[in-house]
Amino acid sequence: MRNVPTTVTVVATMNGDQPIGMVVGTFTAISMDPLLVGFFGDHRSKTLTEITAADRWSFSVLHQDDALAAEAFRGPPESRFSALTWDVSDFGTPLIRGAMITIEAVNDSVVRIGDHDLVTAKVMSLREGDRSRHPLVYFQGRMTRLDPEQVSHSGGTIQAGRSR
User: Fold this and answer.
1) In a 3-state reduction of DSSP, which class is residue 155?
2) What is the pTM of this model?
3) pLDDT over threshold 60, residue 110
């Protein structure tokens, strides 16, 4: 599965006045009506347990210049936010400044599937950052960038394996 590229996204919540967060590479849009997002997390993760105990979360989709922010989440849980610039939103969740997209959501469901939990959330707020930036991508065991110059700009769309 190392050949499946994914966005690098921080899912976070507050525990009192302390932010709790983790990086996920499985963040995805699930439904448009209602607007749902989700991710998979290893159910043995203490951080996942703390996050899913909360009723509201934020998702900060990192841009390609945010590799150091993603690296901060490899450290101890209590220091993950210390090197970042972030704010507590009016919704009460931590948002990383400069993220490509920030989403605030409420707990929809947590379902155990194999060794992971599928966590789904109902979107309450979505904000786009600078549209000229591109997402940080996890691919083949490392963080990397998209190369938009290599993407076809022919104007056609691809649907179900064929061009239109």
Assistant:
1) coil
2) 0.87
3) yes
